[in-house]
Amino acid sequence: MPGERGPVLRPGPVFPKLIAIRKDGTLLWKAAYPQPENYYYNFSSTQPLAVNSFSSWRCEIDPDTGAMLFKLFFK
Question: Thinking of the domain 12-73, which architecture would CATH place it in?
Answer without folding.
Answer: Beta Barrel (2.40)
